[in-house]
Design brief:
mainly alpha; two-stranded antiparallel sheet; about 70% helix; globular
Length: about 525
Amino acid sequence: MEKGKEADTTPEYVAEEAGVVGVGEVVNASGHKQELDRNFSLLSICAVGICTGNTWAALGGSIVVAIYNGGPPGVIYEFLAVSLFYWLIAACIAELSSAIPSSGGVYHFASITAGPKYGRAASWFAGWWNVCAWIFGSASMSLIISNQLTSMWGLFHHEYVPERWNVFVTYLIVTWLCCATVLFANRTLPWISNVGLFFIIAGVIITILVCAIMPTTKGTGHASSAFVWRDWSNQTGYTSDGFVFLAGMLNGAYAVGTPDCVTHLAEELPHPRVNIPKAIAAQMFTGLITAFLYMIAIFYAIGDLDSVLDAPYTFPLAEVYRQATTTRGGSLGLLIVILCPTICTCIGTYITAGRMLWTLARDDATPFSKFVGRISPTHKNPFNATVVCGCICTVLGCIYVGNSTAFNAFVGSFVVLSTLSYLAAILPHALTRRAYVVPGPFWMPDSVAYVVLGVSSAYIVVFVVIFCFPYSLPVSAVSMNYSCVITGGVTIFVGLWWIWKSKRGYVGPKALFEEERRLSTTGVGRVSAEKD
C-alpha cells in the first residue's frame, strides 16, 4: 500500500467476513467491493450537501410563482412549516445513513428496514423513485440556469422576446458543461464544492446587504412590514386559504427537499457513519438560515409586486433585483451572484443522479447494467451512469422545445418522487420498530424516534396527495398539475420492470442485508460503529 493511501482503503469489513467477493478484497458497507476513491473530507461533503441543497438560490428561482400562494407572508410561513417536516425526515435519513453508509442511500436503507420478506421490493421502488427524482431535479436546475442567462441578456435588450429555443440551446450547454465537470474533474469535485460553498455564503450575504441598503439610498424605500409579514394574498383561485397554505408548501419543499444528497457519496468519504449525519445537519441548518434571511431581504426590496408578476423575463427575479437596485446593471450583478452558486448546485445534482443510477446498475436493477454500473478506470467515477443521466436530461430538454407543459410535468414531480423514496425506507423502519438495523453512532432514543418516524411518514402520505392538486383554478390543459401522471407512470413502468426482473435472478442488495443480520445477531455492529 502506498504511503498516505490508508484512509482511501479503510475497509468497513473484509471479504472473508462478508463472503461477497474474493478473499482479501476491501468490501464497503453496501456489501460491494470498494471501487471509488475516498476523495471527500468532512468539509467538502458538507459543501456538497449545502451546494446541492442550495435553498436560497432554489427559492429565488421559484419565488415569484410561490407568491400566488399567499403573497410574501405565505412564502415565508409555508417555507418554515415545510422545513420543520424536512428536518424530521432528515433525522430519519441521518439515522439510517449512520447505520448503513452506502452510496445507494434510501435504495439500500429500504432493503434493510423492510426486512427479508419485503426488502427487495421496497428497495427496488425506493431506488427508482429516487433516481428519477434526481434526474428530473437535475433537469430543473439546468432550466433555472438557462432562464437566468437569458434574463441577463434581456435586461439590456428591450426588444428581445424570449423564445423557447433560446432557452433550450442554453439548457443544452449548461447540462453538458455540468456533466463534463462531474465526468472529467472527479478529483477536483471536493474543491469545486468548497468554492461553491464560498459562493453560497458570500452570495446570500451580498444579496441581503444590497437589498437592505440600496432601496434607502436610492430613495425608493422598502416595502411595509405588513406586506412582508401580514398581508395574505390568495391568487390561486381556491377559496380555502388553509388549503392554499398547504399547497404552497410545495415551493419550500422544492428548495429543502434534498436531505439524502450526501448519502450517495458515503463510499467516497472516510468515516461515513459519523460524517454523513454531520453533513446532513450542516446542509439543513445552513439552508434554513440563509433562505429565511434571503426571503425577508428581497420581499422588503419589492416596490411594485404587479411589475414583478408581469415581468417579461424568463427569470422574474431579475425584476425584483432591478427594483432593489433601481438599475439594470445592479440587477445583472445580483443575477451573477445567484448564478455562481446555482451552477454549483447543478453540478451537485448531476453528481448525485449519476451515483444513484450507478448503485442501481451494480445490483443489476437497470437495463444494460454492466455498462451503466461500470466504474471508469481512468476517471475513477461512475462515468457511464452520469452520461446516461445527461442524455436523459437532454431528451427532457427536447420535450421542453415541443411542449413546455410536458417538461414542467417531469420536473414538477421531483418533490413527489423523492419523498416517496424516503417513505419506502422510513415507514418500514417505523413499522418493524427498527428491528432490522444495527445502530450507528447517530441513533435516536425510542421515545424520540417513533415520533419522528411517524410524523415524517404521515407528512409524506398526506402531502404527496396535496402536491398533486392543480396549482390554480380554473384548470386548463396548460395549467394542470401533471405530477400525479408522471409519478403514476413512473411507478407503473417500474412495477412492470420489477415483475419481469424479479423472476430473472434479481436479488437486490442481498449481501448488505445478510451482513446487517449477521452483525445484529453477534453484537459486532455496535462495536464497529463506535470505532468508526
